[in-house]
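Example record for the data management plan.
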Amino acid sequence: MVVNTEKFKETEKIIKNILIRENGTVLPDKALDIIKSIGIRTPAYVLVKTVKEAIEASKAIGFPVVLKIASPDVLHKSDVGGVVIDVKSEEEVAENYHKVMDNLAGVVSDARIKGVLVQKQAQQATQVIIGGIMDEQFGPAVMFGLGGVFVELFKDVSFRIAPVTETEALEMIKEIKGYPILSGYRGAKMLDIPQLTKAIVTISELISSLDEIKEVELNPLLVYEKGITTVDARIILES
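Corresponding structural encoding:
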């Protein structure tokens, strides 16, 4: 399968700036910048460094918002109390800004804190995960499964060597045990599997095309009856 690398020109610019300005550390806002650049929707977000900035960003984005600690030393923010959802007012922004800071300091005292991500709260939906990795032995690979905080518990995932076609991506979706949740279990409406298929293809092409990317993970990626959106992205660049 031939990948059109022209589609990743904007992505390459973002990564080059990260390598120059951030020493290769991909903070949450920059990870989401990369995901937006490849055509996958994300809720509005701003990385802030003060309570005042957090309040102003929340008002501009519109309540309710989610606050997430931004630290290169923390992979799972929810495990350290670094995420607060359903923040509905300026007072709650101020209170929870300090809360996520204190929670992280209490668990990982030497963690580097780069700020707090203020993000528009997305409507609830079925959560999935899409990942890409450059494996030393097998080369680029793509992964799909049910997402959220339970992905490591259930391990309901499928893998392919990347890049994949839409047909192969659809096979990956149908392989997992949780596929009925996506396809309309017991009268529920089918979710947007075509958009999900395209997202898997895009991530597979991304990890295959850009040598600078070592790992990429969208978790959770929210799947609706129409449309998808990712609220969290983790990207690791080659050092």
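Summary line stored alongside the record: The radius of gyration is 18 Å.
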